[in-house]
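Sample A.
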Amino acid sequence: KKLDRLGRDTADMIQLIKEFDDMGVAIRFLDDGISTEGTMGKMVVTILSAVAQAERLRILERTNEGRLEAKAKGVKFGRKPKVNKA
């Protein structure tokens, strides 16, 4: 349905597209309105998968920066400690 859900990174996407192409199968990404049919389709999918990979990396960076900032401010992560009835 969406291109960025098929593979983790650009190399994975290229390999998957090649494997499917070798079997005579074209992939259509309905939400994105693109397909691996033809040379141009494969090129567009490759470029968009690289963009999706870059976006995932940016999200990871921002998430990690936010965690570090929260820890520096004293925010505790994880489950709250259990209360023992003793």
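Sample B.
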Amino acid sequence: MTMEEGEHTIKIAKTRKATGPDDIPVEFLKLLEDNGKKFLLQLFNRIYETGKIPNDWLKSTFVTIPPQINAKKCTKYRTISLMSHALKIFLRIIQQEYTTKFRKTILVHEMPYSSIHILVQHCRDVSHSVYMCLIDFEKAFDKIRHS
């Protein structure tokens, strides 16, 4: 992972979002000086190379939110998961990197059909290992406005 990728991903991260169990707001990450960003990037690269994510990053806080006023049934509530912003940034960098790599390996006329299934099959056909991290970004990065 490069400094440019890290800086870009931190820059586009949405602010005013609830923190995860580490209580580190994304605004703090945006204010990091170069040394702080370099340290974070070294940490990201070490995690990427070893595959060992810090245990604190694997914890989430689950919050139930009523979508309707005075909701009385459990089915009327939805659950969101509040996770570490550092983990979200790390995962977004990986997602962007793999999206770019996949696009380079698919022919232009194949692009409309590039579902995950086709990508996996293509990798298997040419005897490449396949590692995936599937994230429902709509759920992982909640869209609730926190005042």
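B remarks: The helical segments are 3-12, 26-30, 34-50, 85-105, 116-125, 137-140. The chain has a mean pLDDT of 80.
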